[in-house]
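Researcher: We plan to redesign the surface later, but first we want a full-length starting point. C-alpha coordinates attached.
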Protein backbone atom coordinates (compact mmCIF):
# COMPACT_ATOMS: atom_id res chain seq x y z
CA UNK A 1 0.00 0.00 0.00
CA UNK A 2 1.22 3.48 -0.93
CA UNK A 3 0.10 6.61 0.86
CA UNK A 4 0.65 10.28 0.13
CA UNK A 5 -0.81 13.66 1.04
CA UNK A 6 -2.93 15.07 -1.79
CA UNK A 7 -1.28 18.18 -3.16
CA UNK A 8 -4.53 20.18 -3.34
CA UNK A 9 -6.81 18.86 -0.61
CA UNK A 10 -4.25 18.07 2.10
CA UNK A 11 -5.88 14.68 2.73
CA UNK A 12 -4.04 11.36 2.91
CA UNK A 13 -4.70 9.10 -0.08
CA UNK A 14 -4.22 5.33 -0.10
CA UNK A 15 -3.46 3.47 -3.31
CA UNK A 16 -5.17 0.08 -2.84
CA UNK A 17 -4.02 -1.64 -6.05
CA UNK A 18 -0.72 -1.84 -7.89
CA UNK A 19 -1.39 -3.91 -11.01
CA UNK A 20 0.65 -3.57 -14.21
CA UNK A 21 -2.49 -3.36 -16.38
CA UNK A 22 -4.35 -1.20 -13.89
CA UNK A 23 -7.44 -1.79 -11.77
CA UNK A 24 -10.84 -0.24 -11.29
CA UNK A 25 -14.02 -0.30 -9.26
CA UNK A 26 -17.32 -0.94 -11.05
CA UNK A 27 -19.34 1.69 -12.91
CA UNK A 28 -20.68 4.00 -10.21
CA UNK A 29 -24.23 2.58 -10.02
CA UNK A 30 -23.28 -1.12 -9.90
CA UNK A 31 -23.28 -2.90 -6.49
CA UNK A 32 -19.82 -3.50 -5.05
CA UNK A 33 -20.19 -4.19 -1.30
CA UNK A 34 -19.31 -7.67 -0.02
CA UNK A 35 -20.16 -8.95 3.49
CA UNK A 36 -17.33 -8.29 5.91
CA UNK A 37 -16.66 -4.75 4.74
CA UNK A 38 -14.88 -5.62 1.47
CA UNK A 39 -15.39 -4.05 -1.94
CA UNK A 40 -15.49 -5.73 -5.35
CA UNK A 41 -13.01 -4.43 -7.94
CA UNK A 42 -11.42 -5.49 -11.22
CA UNK A 43 -7.87 -5.91 -12.45
CA UNK A 44 -5.96 -8.60 -14.31
CA UNK A 45 -3.72 -10.78 -12.12
CA UNK A 46 -2.28 -14.32 -12.54
CA UNK A 47 -5.42 -16.06 -11.21
CA UNK A 48 -8.12 -13.99 -12.88
CA UNK A 49 -9.49 -10.46 -13.02
CA UNK A 50 -11.58 -10.03 -9.84
CA UNK A 51 -10.33 -8.43 -6.62
CA UNK A 52 -11.63 -7.72 -3.16
CA UNK A 53 -10.47 -4.49 -1.53
CA UNK A 54 -10.00 -3.82 2.16
CA UNK A 55 -9.60 -0.03 2.47
CA UNK A 56 -9.12 -0.20 6.25
CA UNK A 57 -5.94 -2.27 5.88
CA UNK A 58 -4.96 -1.04 2.40
CA UNK A 59 -5.17 -4.54 0.97
CA UNK A 60 -6.21 -5.94 -2.43
CA UNK A 61 -7.15 -9.64 -2.35
CA UNK A 62 -7.10 -11.47 -5.73
CA UNK A 63 -9.88 -13.98 -6.45
CA UNK A 64 -9.47 -17.06 -8.63
CA UNK A 65 -12.19 -15.93 -10.99
CA UNK A 66 -12.12 -15.01 -14.67
CA UNK A 67 -15.16 -12.94 -15.45
CA UNK A 68 -16.13 -11.94 -18.98
CA UNK A 69 -19.14 -9.92 -17.85
CA UNK A 70 -20.30 -8.90 -14.42
CA UNK A 71 -24.09 -9.11 -14.07
CA UNK A 72 -24.99 -8.27 -10.48
CA UNK A 73 -23.91 -8.49 -6.86
CA UNK A 74 -26.52 -8.99 -4.15
CA UNK A 75 -24.94 -6.90 -1.42
CA UNK A 76 -27.18 -8.38 1.27
CA UNK A 77 -25.72 -11.89 0.98
CA UNK A 78 -22.62 -11.50 -1.22
CA UNK A 79 -23.85 -13.61 -4.13
CA UNK A 80 -22.46 -12.41 -7.47
CA UNK A 81 -23.67 -13.51 -10.91
CA UNK A 82 -21.53 -13.29 -14.01
CA UNK A 83 -20.70 -14.70 -17.43
CA UNK A 84 -17.46 -16.67 -17.38
CA UNK A 85 -16.86 -16.23 -21.10
CA UNK A 86 -18.43 -14.17 -23.91
CA UNK A 87 -21.36 -16.58 -24.06
CA UNK A 88 -24.69 -17.01 -22.29
CA UNK A 89 -23.85 -19.34 -19.40
CA UNK A 90 -24.63 -17.73 -16.04
CA UNK A 91 -22.47 -18.53 -13.01
CA UNK A 92 -22.69 -17.47 -9.38
CA UNK A 93 -20.22 -17.22 -6.53
CA UNK A 94 -20.74 -16.38 -2.88
CA UNK A 95 -18.21 -13.70 -2.03
CA UNK A 96 -15.77 -13.42 -0.32
CA UNK A 97 -15.20 -17.01 -1.49
CA UNK A 98 -14.19 -17.89 -5.04
CA UNK A 99 -15.82 -21.27 -5.77
CA UNK A 100 -18.35 -20.71 -8.59
CA UNK A 101 -21.45 -22.74 -9.42
CA UNK A 102 -23.45 -23.01 -12.63
CA UNK A 103 -26.83 -21.25 -12.46
CA UNK A 104 -28.24 -21.69 -15.95
CA UNK A 105 -27.96 -20.68 -19.57
CA UNK A 106 -29.77 -18.19 -21.75
CA UNK A 107 -30.70 -19.89 -25.07
CA UNK A 108 -28.58 -18.99 -28.07
CA UNK A 109 -31.66 -17.99 -30.05
CA UNK A 110 -32.92 -15.57 -27.40
CA UNK A 111 -32.64 -11.99 -28.72
CA UNK A 112 -30.15 -9.56 -27.27
CA UNK A 113 -27.34 -10.20 -24.81
CA UNK A 114 -27.39 -10.68 -21.01
CA UNK A 115 -26.55 -7.46 -19.18
CA UNK A 116 -28.11 -7.88 -15.72
CA UNK A 117 -29.95 -10.30 -13.44
CA UNK A 118 -32.52 -9.87 -10.68
CA UNK A 119 -31.43 -9.83 -7.04
CA UNK A 120 -32.70 -13.41 -6.55
CA UNK A 121 -30.70 -14.69 -9.52
CA UNK A 122 -33.78 -16.03 -11.27
CA UNK A 123 -34.35 -13.65 -14.18
CA UNK A 124 -31.65 -12.58 -16.63
CA UNK A 125 -32.09 -9.24 -18.38
CA UNK A 126 -31.19 -9.11 -22.07
CA UNK A 127 -30.89 -6.00 -24.21
CA UNK A 128 -31.05 -5.47 -27.95
CA UNK A 129 -29.36 -2.41 -29.41
CA UNK A 130 -29.71 -1.78 -33.12
CA UNK A 131 -27.47 1.01 -34.41
CA UNK A 132 -24.36 1.66 -36.51
CA UNK A 133 -21.64 2.97 -34.18
CA UNK A 134 -19.12 3.28 -37.02
CA UNK A 135 -21.23 5.79 -38.95
CA UNK A 136 -22.04 7.75 -35.79
CA UNK A 137 -18.94 7.74 -33.53
CA UNK A 138 -19.29 8.82 -29.93
CA UNK A 139 -18.25 12.47 -29.54
CA UNK A 140 -15.22 12.91 -27.29
CA UNK A 141 -14.33 16.52 -28.11
CA UNK A 142 -16.16 19.85 -27.78
CA UNK A 143 -17.26 19.62 -31.42
CA UNK A 144 -20.94 20.62 -31.49
CA UNK A 145 -21.57 19.17 -34.95
CA UNK A 146 -20.11 15.79 -33.91
CA UNK A 147 -22.26 15.81 -30.78
CA UNK A 148 -25.53 16.36 -32.64
CA UNK A 149 -24.50 13.94 -35.38
CA UNK A 150 -24.13 11.22 -32.74
CA UNK A 151 -27.56 11.87 -31.24
CA UNK A 152 -29.16 11.91 -34.68
CA UNK A 153 -28.17 8.31 -35.35
CA UNK A 154 -30.96 5.85 -36.25
CA UNK A 155 -31.46 3.39 -33.42
CA UNK A 156 -33.98 1.24 -31.63
CA UNK A 157 -33.94 -1.27 -28.82
CA UNK A 158 -35.73 -3.86 -26.75
CA UNK A 159 -35.32 -5.30 -23.26
CA UNK A 160 -36.13 -8.94 -22.59
CA UNK A 161 -36.43 -10.92 -19.36
CA UNK A 162 -35.46 -14.59 -19.38
CA UNK A 163 -36.65 -16.69 -16.42
CA UNK A 164 -33.80 -19.18 -15.93
CA UNK A 165 -35.96 -21.58 -13.88
CA UNK A 166 -39.09 -21.56 -16.03
CA UNK A 167 -37.10 -21.05 -19.28
CA UNK A 168 -39.50 -18.33 -20.31
CA UNK A 169 -38.67 -15.27 -22.41
CA UNK A 170 -40.68 -12.03 -22.07
CA UNK A 171 -40.29 -8.73 -23.90
CA UNK A 172 -40.65 -6.05 -21.23
CA UNK A 173 -39.73 -2.77 -22.99
CA UNK A 174 -39.30 -1.51 -26.54
CA UNK A 175 -38.40 1.72 -28.30
CA UNK A 176 -38.66 2.12 -32.07
CA UNK A 177 -37.08 5.58 -32.23
CA UNK A 178 -34.40 5.41 -29.50
CA UNK A 179 -32.09 2.89 -27.90
CA UNK A 180 -32.49 1.66 -24.32
CA UNK A 181 -29.69 1.79 -21.77
CA UNK A 182 -28.67 1.60 -18.08
CA UNK A 183 -30.67 -1.57 -17.42
CA UNK A 184 -30.49 -1.94 -13.64
CA UNK A 185 -32.52 -4.38 -11.53
CA UNK A 186 -33.72 -3.43 -8.06
CA UNK A 187 -31.45 -4.30 -5.12
CA UNK A 188 -34.47 -5.45 -3.07
CA UNK A 189 -37.36 -6.30 -5.45
CA UNK A 190 -36.66 -9.30 -7.74
CA UNK A 191 -39.49 -8.26 -10.04
CA UNK A 192 -38.41 -4.69 -10.81
CA UNK A 193 -36.08 -3.10 -13.37
CA UNK A 194 -35.26 0.53 -14.10
CA UNK A 195 -33.74 1.74 -17.34
CA UNK A 196 -33.32 4.87 -19.42
CA UNK A 197 -33.82 5.90 -23.01
CA UNK A 198 -30.63 6.58 -24.96
CA UNK A 199 -31.28 10.25 -25.66
CA UNK A 200 -30.12 13.73 -24.86
CA UNK A 201 -31.16 14.15 -21.24
CA UNK A 202 -33.19 17.34 -21.76
CA UNK A 203 -35.32 16.32 -24.76
CA UNK A 204 -37.93 14.04 -23.24
CA UNK A 205 -38.76 11.46 -20.59
CA UNK A 206 -35.55 9.55 -19.90
CA UNK A 207 -36.02 7.37 -16.78
CA UNK A 208 -38.44 4.43 -16.63
CA UNK A 209 -39.27 1.37 -14.52
CA UNK A 210 -41.02 -1.87 -15.46
CA UNK A 211 -41.79 -5.25 -13.91
CA UNK A 212 -39.88 -8.22 -15.29
CA UNK A 213 -43.16 -9.81 -16.36
CA UNK A 214 -43.71 -6.81 -18.66
CA UNK A 215 -46.31 -5.05 -16.50
CA UNK A 216 -46.22 -1.72 -14.69
CA UNK A 217 -44.25 0.39 -17.17
CA UNK A 218 -44.00 3.89 -15.70
CA UNK A 219 -41.94 7.05 -15.85
CA UNK A 220 -39.62 7.87 -12.95
CA UNK A 221 -39.63 11.60 -12.16
CA UNK A 222 -41.91 12.95 -14.89
CA UNK A 223 -39.92 15.40 -17.00
CA UNK A 224 -40.99 18.56 -18.74
CA UNK A 225 -39.27 19.31 -22.02
CA UNK A 226 -35.79 20.79 -21.43
CA UNK A 227 -35.48 19.48 -17.88
CA UNK A 228 -32.29 17.38 -17.88
CA UNK A 229 -32.30 14.24 -15.74
CA UNK A 230 -29.42 11.78 -16.00
CA UNK A 231 -27.08 9.31 -14.27
CA UNK A 232 -29.81 7.67 -12.24
CA UNK A 233 -29.04 5.21 -9.41
CA UNK A 234 -30.86 3.20 -6.74
CA UNK A 235 -31.09 4.86 -3.35
CA UNK A 236 -30.41 2.47 -0.41
CA UNK A 237 -33.45 0.27 0.25
CA UNK A 238 -34.62 0.28 -3.35
CA UNK A 239 -37.64 2.53 -2.79
CA UNK A 240 -36.16 5.64 -4.41
CA UNK A 241 -34.04 6.59 -7.41
CA UNK A 242 -31.42 9.34 -7.28
CA UNK A 243 -30.29 11.37 -10.28
CA UNK A 244 -28.53 14.50 -11.49
CA UNK A 245 -30.89 17.36 -12.36
CA UNK A 246 -30.53 20.52 -14.45
CA UNK A 247 -33.28 22.90 -15.55
CA UNK A 248 -32.57 23.97 -19.12
CA UNK A 249 -36.00 25.44 -19.76
CA UNK A 250 -35.34 28.86 -21.21
CA UNK A 251 -31.62 28.13 -21.68
CA UNK A 252 -30.77 29.61 -25.07
CA UNK A 253 -27.36 27.87 -25.11
CA UNK A 254 -28.80 24.34 -25.36
CA UNK A 255 -27.97 23.89 -29.03
CA UNK A 256 -24.40 25.20 -28.92
CA UNK A 257 -23.63 23.84 -25.40
CA UNK A 258 -25.56 20.55 -25.27
CA UNK A 259 -23.12 18.96 -22.79
CA UNK A 260 -24.39 18.95 -19.22
CA UNK A 261 -20.92 19.72 -17.87
CA UNK A 262 -20.71 22.98 -19.84
CA UNK A 263 -24.32 24.13 -19.39
CA UNK A 264 -24.71 27.58 -17.75
CA UNK A 265 -27.34 26.29 -15.30
CA UNK A 266 -27.19 24.93 -11.77
CA UNK A 267 -26.81 21.21 -11.10
CA UNK A 268 -28.78 19.56 -8.31
CA UNK A 269 -29.27 16.16 -6.70
CA UNK A 270 -32.80 14.84 -7.15
CA UNK A 271 -34.51 11.79 -5.64
CA UNK A 272 -37.83 10.32 -6.80
CA UNK A 273 -40.11 7.61 -5.46
CA UNK A 274 -41.04 4.58 -7.54
CA UNK A 275 -44.39 6.21 -8.32
CA UNK A 276 -42.44 8.80 -10.31
CA UNK A 277 -42.93 11.65 -7.85
CA UNK A 278 -39.94 13.78 -6.93
CA UNK A 279 -39.31 13.55 -3.18
CA UNK A 280 -36.13 15.62 -2.84
CA UNK A 281 -34.30 18.32 -4.80
CA UNK A 282 -31.11 19.82 -3.43
CA UNK A 283 -29.87 23.36 -3.56
CA UNK A 284 -27.48 24.10 -6.43
CA UNK A 285 -24.24 22.13 -6.14
CA UNK A 286 -20.77 23.61 -6.35
CA UNK A 287 -20.20 22.34 -9.91
CA UNK A 288 -21.47 19.77 -12.38
CA UNK A 289 -20.79 16.25 -11.11
CA UNK A 290 -20.86 13.65 -13.87
CA UNK A 291 -21.95 10.99 -11.36
CA UNK A 292 -23.49 11.44 -7.94
CA UNK A 293 -23.75 8.39 -5.68
CA UNK A 294 -24.75 7.51 -2.13
CA UNK A 295 -23.27 5.58 0.80
CA UNK A 296 -24.90 2.27 1.90
CA UNK A 297 -26.43 3.97 4.95
CA UNK A 298 -27.68 6.98 2.97
CA UNK A 299 -25.76 9.40 5.20
CA UNK A 300 -23.20 10.53 2.62
CA UNK A 301 -23.17 11.34 -1.08
CA UNK A 302 -20.20 11.61 -3.42
CA UNK A 303 -19.66 13.48 -6.65
CA UNK A 304 -17.29 13.29 -9.58
CA UNK A 305 -16.25 16.72 -10.71
CA UNK A 306 -15.71 17.42 -14.38
CA UNK A 307 -13.64 19.69 -16.60
CA UNK A 308 -12.04 22.30 -14.35
CA UNK A 309 -13.22 20.51 -11.21
CA UNK A 310 -11.04 17.37 -11.22
CA UNK A 311 -11.69 16.03 -7.73
CA UNK A 312 -13.56 13.23 -6.03
CA UNK A 313 -16.03 14.96 -3.70
CA UNK A 314 -18.05 13.95 -0.64
CA UNK A 315 -20.80 15.58 1.43
CA UNK A 316 -23.04 14.59 4.34
CA UNK A 317 -26.67 14.03 3.33
CA UNK A 318 -29.96 14.52 5.15
CA UNK A 319 -33.50 14.30 3.81
CA UNK A 320 -34.29 17.24 6.10
CA UNK A 321 -31.83 19.61 4.44
CA UNK A 322 -31.56 20.70 0.81
CA UNK A 323 -27.92 21.74 1.35
CA UNK A 324 -25.38 19.32 -0.15
CA UNK A 325 -21.96 20.81 0.51
CA UNK A 326 -19.54 18.81 -1.61
CA UNK A 327 -15.94 19.08 -0.36
CA UNK A 328 -13.01 18.05 -2.59
CA UNK A 329 -11.47 14.92 -1.10
CA UNK A 330 -8.82 13.90 -3.63
CA UNK A 331 -7.38 15.23 -6.87
CA UNK A 332 -8.16 13.26 -10.05
CA UNK A 333 -5.22 12.97 -12.44
CA UNK A 334 -6.97 11.09 -15.27
CA UNK A 335 -7.39 13.39 -18.30
CA UNK A 336 -10.92 14.70 -18.73
CA UNK A 337 -12.81 13.68 -21.89
CA UNK A 338 -15.95 15.64 -22.82
CA UNK A 339 -19.10 13.50 -22.67
CA UNK A 340 -17.14 10.58 -21.15
CA UNK A 341 -15.74 12.04 -17.93
CA UNK A 342 -12.69 10.77 -16.05
CA UNK A 343 -13.60 7.17 -15.10
CA UNK A 344 -13.67 8.11 -11.41
CA UNK A 345 -16.54 5.73 -10.42
CA UNK A 346 -16.51 6.91 -6.80
CA UNK A 347 -18.34 5.10 -4.00
CA UNK A 348 -18.16 4.53 -0.27
CA UNK A 349 -16.79 1.65 1.77
CA UNK A 350 -18.80 -0.09 4.47
CA UNK A 351 -19.84 2.25 7.29
CA UNK A 352 -18.80 5.19 5.05
CA UNK A 353 -15.26 5.29 6.41
CA UNK A 354 -13.62 5.62 2.99
CA UNK A 355 -14.35 7.19 -0.36
CA UNK A 356 -13.06 4.69 -2.94
CA UNK A 357 -12.41 5.82 -6.51
CA UNK A 358 -10.37 5.29 -9.67
CA UNK A 359 -7.44 7.49 -10.62
CA UNK A 360 -4.45 7.36 -12.93
CA UNK A 361 -1.26 6.56 -11.02
CA UNK A 362 2.04 6.28 -12.91
CA UNK A 363 0.15 6.06 -16.18
CA UNK A 364 -2.29 3.30 -15.18
CA UNK A 365 -5.78 3.34 -13.74
CA UNK A 366 -5.71 2.12 -10.12
CA UNK A 367 -8.08 2.13 -7.14
CA UNK A 368 -7.48 4.66 -4.39
CA UNK A 369 -9.21 5.61 -1.14
CA UNK A 370 -9.41 8.68 1.06
CA UNK A 371 -10.91 8.75 4.54
CA UNK A 372 -14.32 10.42 4.86
CA UNK A 373 -14.98 12.91 7.65
CA UNK A 374 -11.39 13.80 8.53
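Model: Full-length starting sequence:
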Amino acid sequence: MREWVDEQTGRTVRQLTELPDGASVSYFRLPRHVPGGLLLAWGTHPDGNALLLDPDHGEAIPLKLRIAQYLKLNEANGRMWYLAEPGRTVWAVDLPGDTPELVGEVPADAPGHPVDITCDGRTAILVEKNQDPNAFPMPVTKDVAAFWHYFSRPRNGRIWAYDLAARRLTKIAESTELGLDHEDTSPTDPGLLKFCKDMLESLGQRMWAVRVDGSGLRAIRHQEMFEAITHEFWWPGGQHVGYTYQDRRGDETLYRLPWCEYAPVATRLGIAGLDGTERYLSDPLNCYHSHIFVSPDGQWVCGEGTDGHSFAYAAPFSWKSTAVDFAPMATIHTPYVPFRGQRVEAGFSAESRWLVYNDTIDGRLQVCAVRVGE
